[in-house]
Automatic annotation (TrEMBL), chain A:
Compositionally biased spans, kind Low complexity: 24-39
PANTHER family per the UniProt record, alphabetical: MAGNESIUM PROTOPORPHYRIN IX METHYLTRANSFERASE, CHLOROPLASTIC-RELATED, METHYLTRANSFERASE
Protein name: Gamma-tocopherol methyltransferase, VITAMIN E DEFICIENT 4
Residue numbers spanned by region Disordered: 20-39
InterPro entries membership: Methyltransf_11, PiNMT-like, SAM-dependent_MTases_sf
Region (SAM motif III) residue spans: 223-232
Taxonomic superkingdom: Eukaryota
Molecular function GO terms recorded: S-adenosylmethionine-dependent methyltransferase activity
Keyword Cytoplasm: no
Chain segments carrying region SAM motif II: 196-204
From TrEMBL, chain B:
Keyword Methyltransferase: yes
Protein name: tRNA methyltransferase 112a
Similarity field: Belongs to the TRM112 family.
GO biological process: rRNA (guanine-N7)-methylation; tRNA methylation
CDD domains assigned: Trm112-like
InterPro entries: Trm112, Trm112-like
Naturally occurring in which organism (per UniProt): Hibiscus trionum (Flower of an hour)
Keyword annotations of the record: Methyltransferase, Transferase
One annotated GO molecular function: protein heterodimerization activity
Pfam families, alphabetized: Trm112p
């Protein structure tokens, strides 16, 4: 099995398709609007300035191609993921130092949701618990259904993938949650909801797909109700040092190879997100690095790919899925070398 | 797509100020039974834009809802009304059709019950 997998990268190198051009992140440029509003965060006054991106901004065609790529990737890959890993398309949360083998990964994925809610301080009290939730980048709706069931809340999910939306709705019907959750094809950067709709805005491992982080955050903020909570759990690169303008070339090269396979635009750091929220006067901005809590995940995914079922399913699914699978060791390398961080960022929108 | 969902969707094409409610073009409406939950209906009632909801229900072929929203006390006592509310909100599904922006006329297709709200480049 392992030797067969080793020959595949050779096959891929000879028939390399040109990767899609990646849009760079665009932050508000410092010439037009320097966000230096002071905001109160955890009792300290912090003055924030959002750094402008030094690279060129994405063309509309680049973004279109990225979104099509994302939709096609998940249209192609969702089925096989669900088959082997179930309805949650996100990392599991483990105690540090846990071994991948013998871990209950599906329980770990549930724990990831619970730990995120706990970190954000979401109340389970009847009066304070969330009643309207949006799941941004909902996959096949695992989080939506879990949250709707947990809080008895209404949950709307959006995804770029029609196959995922369809599957998410079907699973909701099957689980008797059809009155509480619904899913549609929509763009996280242009959410089809009026302002201030949701008391919990949930983005579980979808932020890494967003080509314009500032616009992404602005949309999350727009649809959040006053006093509502935003939770982002996402892949980031490490925070830059005080004298650094960007990552080292070898780090960028590593991320580039991952981006091509997973249809990701340029990465940002967790503190980039924090600065965006600070510039919008948000309260209780919290962030943490959970990289050590997700370490067993990628080895476990690789192991599942190398089972007979995993391997044959991969060969059947298509080029995009296969390429995604082959890039998994790079995720492990990225985490081990401290380039990739698994981050949570939460905050509360000021009440009216 | 249920009318519960329709009541939460709006068009956010750049520059549009009046993107709610989306007008429904119904090609195929399907009825799917769902167990009624009175508490849920009472909780969701204050959040529903009634005019948009009752107009939409008529387009979907259901004419039993009043045009004006009832008093909340009706939901406590009137089982027949609750049944109609439940049916229109949760049991009518737009399988095929479109949602139309009231300001620009832009059509968002609904296919297999799933609305596609993706905007084009020039609408963003």
């Amino acid at each position: 099995m392992a030797s067969a997998l080793q020959t595949l990268p050779c096959f891929l190198r000879t028939c390399q398709l040109s990767p899609p051009p990646r849009p760079s992140i665009s932050f508000p440029s410092s010439s037009s609007s320097s966000f230096s509003r002071t905001s109160q965060s955890n009792g300290r006054f912090v003055s924030a300035r959002v750094k402008a991106s030094s690279s060129s901004s994405a063309t509309a065609a680049d973004v279109r191609e990225l979104k099509d790529g994302i939709a096609e990737f998940y249209d192609e890959s969702s089925g096989i993921w669900e088959d082997i890993w179930g309805e949650h398309m996100h990392h599991g949360f483990y105690d540090p130092g846990t071994d991948a083998s013998g871990s209950d990964h599906r329980a770990a994925q549930i724990r990831m949701i619970e730990e995120s809610l706990r970190f954000a301080g979401i109340s389970e009290e009847r009066a304070k618990k969330p009643k309207r939730i949006v799941d941004v980048g909902c996959g096949i709706g695992g989080s939506s259904r879990y949250l709707a069931k947990k809080y008895g809340a209404q949950c709307q999910g959006i995804t770029l993938s029609p196959v995922q939306a369809d599957r998410a709705n079907a699973l909701a019907e099957a689980q008797g949650l059809a009155d509480k959750v619904s899913f549609r094809v929509a763009d996280a950067l242009n959410q089809p909801f009026p302002d201030g709709q949701f008391d919990l805005v949930w983005s579980m491992e979808s932020g890494e797909h967003m080509p314009d982080k500032a616009k992404f955050v602005n949309e999350l903020v727009r649809v959040a109700a006053p006093g509502g909570t935003i939770i982002i759990v996402t892949w980031c690169h490490r925070d830059l040092g005080p004298s650094e303008e960007s990552l080292q070339p070898w780090e960028k090269e590593l991320l580039k190879r991952i981006c091509d396979a997973y249809y990701l635009p340029d990465w940002c750091s967790a503190s980039d997100y924090v600065k965006l929220f600070q510039s919008l006067s948000f309260q209780d901005i919290k962030t943490d690095d959970w990289s050590e809590h997700v370490a067993p995940f990628w080895p476990a995914v690789i192991r599942s790919a190398l089972t007979w079922k995993g391997f044959t399913s991969l060969l059947r699914s298509g080029f995009k899925t296969l390429r995604g699978a082959l890039v998994m060791p790079l995720m492990i390398e990225g985490y081990q070398k401290g380039v990739i961080k698994f981050a949570i960022i939460t905050c509360r929108k000021p009440p009216e | 797509m249920r009318l519960l969902t329709h009541n939460m969707l709006s068009c956010n094409i750049k520059g549009v100020t009046n993107g709610f409610p989306l007008r429904i073009e119904a090609e195929k409406v399907v009825e799917k039974q769902l167990e009624i939950n009175h508490d849920f209906l009472r909780n969701i009632f204050p959040k529903i834009d009634w005019k948009a909801f009752s107009d939409a229900s008529r387009i979907m072929g259901y004419h039993e809802l009043p045009e004006e929203p009832p008093e909340p006390s009706v939901l406590e006592s009137d089982a027949e009304f609750l049944g109609k509310f439940h049916h229109a909100l949760l049991e009518l599904h737009l399988e095929e059709g479109a949602l139309i922006c009231p300001e620009t006329g832009r059509k968002f297709p609904v296919s297999k019950g799933i609305p596609n709200m993706l905007l084009l480049e020039d609408e963003v």
